[in-house]
Amino acid sequence: MYKDLNLEIDIGGVKLKNPVMTASGTFGAGKEYSEFIDLNQLGAVVVKGIATNPWIGNPPPRIAETYGGMLNAIGLQNLGVEHFINEDIPYLRKYDTKIVVNVIGKTMKEYCEVVERLSDQDVDLIELNISCPNIKEGGVNFGTNCNSVEDVTREVKKYAKQPVIVKLSPNVTDIVEIAKAAESGGADALSLINTITGMVIDINKRKPILANITGGLSGPAIKPIGVRMVYEVHKKVKLPIVGMGGIMNGDDAIEYILAGATGVAVGTANFVNPRATIDVLEGIVNYCNKYGIKDLSEIRGIV
């Protein structure tokens, strides 16, 4: 199936065997999904957000289905960086796939502490999630202000031994300016898009369904927005892009690649189809075979 087809990609100097990876927060560290798929087939596993110390997350209910997707307000629940180092890295290293660690924090200092702790660990890439509340700035998100994006990226790069992917928030006026700020700060690559802030109301109880009131919308409903943002950023920024948002099959992934994405991440689809990542990979291969494509660089960003 892969004969004469080069699927290899380069993200910040790290070679991935193919462009398909998981979206943070939807795959854990892959342990549950390994019962359904061969993790060796993935280009990379992007793990759930990791903080300095364990976070308990938000109170339930914190998941709500909606038309064309879902809302989540998990609150980045995680067991902390030490648990990840002791338990998850050894597990993932049993597989021939790259490890991408999604890093979260409430302050600049917390981001830097996690990245520094990971600097001498056997992981391949850091994904900086800058959509977390910045407590010291009154709840303003790092990722919605160009100066904050550039500052946090530059500061984290001082501690990182691995290439840094900056994950961008779509909840901004101009995604291109935010991407340029990350590039100026020294980012090695970009991930886009993160979830879009949404809200659902129970009309019978006349109250929000989520205890947090709002949550992040993901799934097919946001794919056109993700594709548009990747398209816009690719034209203005030289960094490789990991495209995500509503990828359910190979055709969706090809859309992102045509728009300019180097890699693609599968998220919400994993919840409805544990084999989604493999189905996406096979769909990309089938598309390439159908049109005689030998290397994804032939079609990347050609739209």
Outline the structure in words:
The structure is a single chain. With 303 residues, the protein is of the alpha/beta class. The chain has one domain: TIM Barrel (Alpha-Beta Barrel), CATH 3.20.20. The chain is built from eight helices and 18 strands. Strands 3-18-17-12-11-8-7-4 form an eight-stranded parallel sheet. A hairpin with a 5-residue loop joins strand 9 and strand 10. The protein is globular and about 55 Å long. 49% of the residues are buried.
Features:
about 20% strand; 18 strands; about 300 residues; TIM Barrel; alpha/beta
Please write out the topology.
Layout: E1 9-11, E2 14-16, E3 20-22, E4 44-46, E5 63-66, E6 69-72, H1 81-92, E7 98-103, H2 108-118, E8 125-129, E9 133-134, E10 140-141, H3 146-157, E11 164-167, H4 175-184, E12 189-192, E13 196-199, E14 201-202, E15 207-208, E16 214-218, H5 223-236, E17 241-244, H6 250-259, E18 263-266, H7 269-272, H8 276-291
Parallel strand pairs: 3-18, 4-7, 7-8, 8-11, 11-12, 12-17, 17-18
Antiparallel strand pairs: 1-2, 5-6, 6-16, 9-10, 13-16, 14-15
